Amino acid sequence: MKNRIFLVTVLAALLLALAACSGDNNDATEDKNTDEAATTETAYEPEDVKDTDVCEVCAMAVPNNEHATQIVLTNERSLKFDDIGCMYEWIEENGEEDIGTAFVRDFNSEEWFDFNEATFVFDESIETPMAYGIISFIEESEAEQFIDEFGTGELLDRADLTNHEWKMYKDMDGHDHDEHDHEEHDDMNEDEA
Amino acid sequence: MLFFVIKLKVQHNTTIIQQKGGDLLKRLLGIITFSFLFIIVPNSADAKENLVQQLVDYADAGDTVHIPSGIYEEPIIIDKPITVIGNKDVYFTINNHKQAITIDADNVSLQHISINYHSDRTDGAALVINSNRNQLDHITIETTGRGIFLDNAHENILHHITLRGNERLPIQSRQRGIDMWKSNENTIHDSTISHVEDGIYIESSSHNVVYDNRITYSRYGYHLMFTKETELYRNESAENISGMMIMGTNGTKVYENKLTFNQKNVQSLGLLLFDVQNAIIKQNKIAHNRIGIFVEDATENELMNNDVTNNFIGLQFKRAEHNVIYNNAFSANVVQGQAEDSMNNETNYNYWSDHQGLDIDGDRLSNLTYKVDPFYLHLTNEYPPYRLLFQSPGFVFLENMMHTPIEQQLVDQTPLIDNPLDEAPLTKDNNKSTFIVSTIFLTLSLLTIYMGVKK
């Protein structure tokens, strides 16, 4: 009988101790959450592109390349897009209210940075996954350099995108345009070594 | 010139060059005579390195060149209308070149060749065609890069192609199996492709026909981007991330294909129609995918007689309007359908296996309406973790409580009572055999009961 009373007492003590510990943990977690919330109010971080990511608009897999874009919502959920055109379509449809930060990647370095600070180059013949023909640069000088090297292209800033005619520049007829400078395909016959 | 003639002396014993022009004998005599004049003969390894290109260079238009058995390590360019046939065991092992074989001329036929192509260049390919009316058959390709690239190439026929990528590469690092760019009226049939990025990829092209092919273990089986009047039929796509991705197309015909077990990814699809107009999708079997058919931003398409079964979601609409969907069978899908911002689609006369139909007038059409509510999709899009509560009683309760306007729902006003794609009912013969088998079993059972208990 004595043993049983002792056992019950020990168990009760253990339970109390556990309750106390978990209470402390909860407090700690809450404190941490509050701290995080305070810091994330001003800074949203882009997520890396994962194999399972698909574009929110066109359902294509999002390749981990310079064309990938993303929106981090105010609830910190990240939406990925395979082409800046898909992202713009999403913004047109859903508005900017819930957007924490929209990110694009630099065409040369593939570094994520704020969509609002980018310089863009547009040309129908620039190959992008959904044929919107727009690429992004951190530095305006690099955008200009691209236009020089590519031979054609229109320099745009964030404000210009509002008036830009957003559409997929598709060509279904399969006839090559003389002016089309297809970066991947054109030099196919040159090299043999 | 001198060197060239010497080399041909080495080759002519093992190679047959048939010339349609008729001066073959004269040419052979010339070669033999000249070759005996020289004592210096290049070693056989050097000769073999350039053998195939020399055979091609030496042939005239219309000739047939037979390549002797062997392993060749130099790329070749075919720039005249000839037939090139590989004898048994002809292998091109090509490392770090832009391409292994290039077909520059029209009317070339290439047969019975194996290519082993190692290159991680994104602008290369094992076989490149940039000309018209060529034929490739019985070509086997193993590649770490792109397989076959048709660049502004028209009216070519590719058949019995076996193409395999590198399964050890992650899908993001693989390249396309057969890639068409601005190429019209080509045909691909009876080919097998596996372990690549997209099995058959067609962009900015029109009037291509793809049939009787099988693509497995790749990212997308068949991928159309901005094409017109493409025809895909009797193809199979299995164990890929997605079966068929049809995007930005007009006038596509997709029929009698089997798109099954495309569920390698949380976003896997059987068939995607994105920004598609005037497509006809009929008599396809779409089974065991994550989403069977996903119709997004698509208008004026017709989907009929498709068997959509055992998918997680059978049919999903997103911003799809003015499509006609009838006589399809949606059975045993976890969710038969989902619809979001989709209006003015005609979705009557389909069979929904979970529909509790009621046929009052005996016309085999249910007098009760079948509705697909977008509530679940709306909510899980906003809060993905709610997917865990899929079809929980609370969710069903909420769905009934939160009324979605009828114009945003997918509604079948006249669902079919019977599955239109079911096998024909048992014939009289089948009935008879069933009766005989049953009688035998019954007799045996009775005999066992009465005789088995006797001692």
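Chain B touches chain A through 46 residues (CB under 8 Å).
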